[in-house]
Specification:
The protein is mostly helical. The chain contains four helices and no strands. The structure holds fe (ii) ion (2 copies).
């Protein structure tokens, strides 16, 4: 935790909230990496998918890339605002086993399932952040609620795709 020269006595930037700030920074860092890995996975799968049946799913993934990158940017900005440092790439370790592009490029269902798993993981983590912020960090909470809504939209969209493809 870097030493901070703060000028406020209320809210998450106040010295009294240093421990809480450290806790939230850890959660935000994890959220940042989740978004960055999602960007990588969606770029690869959008490009990799093949076939008429896969076209709409690939296009939708492509559009989501921009949204997920926007989320990553928001998390990085918020880390900075909380006196943290956005992490460098050496801190990254991959976790999205289910989003490795399938060997069969027409295997849309595997990709859809991978997306659902990633979105569900994000939803779970963002709910945790929202709860951790309650009462002490309204601005992070507000930001993450917006992002949560995007992820819930993504999850529902891919649940609908899954129904269609199964
Ligand atoms: Fe996201
Ligand atoms: Fe998402």
């Amino acid at each position: 935790m870097p030493r901070t020269e703060t000028h406020v006595t209320a809210g998450i930037l106040s010295p009294a909230q240093a421990d809480k700030r450290a806790e939230i920074l850890t959660l935000l860092e994890r959220a940042y990496w989740m978004e960055m890995e999602t960007v990588m996975s969606y770029v690869a799968n959008a490009a990799g998918l093949d076939g008429i049946r896969a076209e709409e799913v690939a296009e939708s993934l492509s559009a989501d890339v921009d949204e997920e990158l926007g989320h990553a940017r928001k998390f990085a900005d918020r880390i900075k605002e909380l006196y943290g440092t956005p992490p460098g790439s050496r801190g990254f370790s991959a976790e999205q086993d289910s989003l490795q592009p399938p060997e069969d490029a027409t295997d849309v269902v595997t990709v859809i399932r991978g997306v659902i798993e990633a979105e569900a993981g994000a939803i779970e983590h963002y709910n945790r952040i929202i709860e951790a912020c309650d009462g002490v960090d309204w601005a992070t909470q507000d930001m993450v609620i917006d992002i949560l809504r995007d992820e819930e939209g993504h999850l529902r969209q891919f649940e609908r795709y899954l129904r269609e493809f199964e």
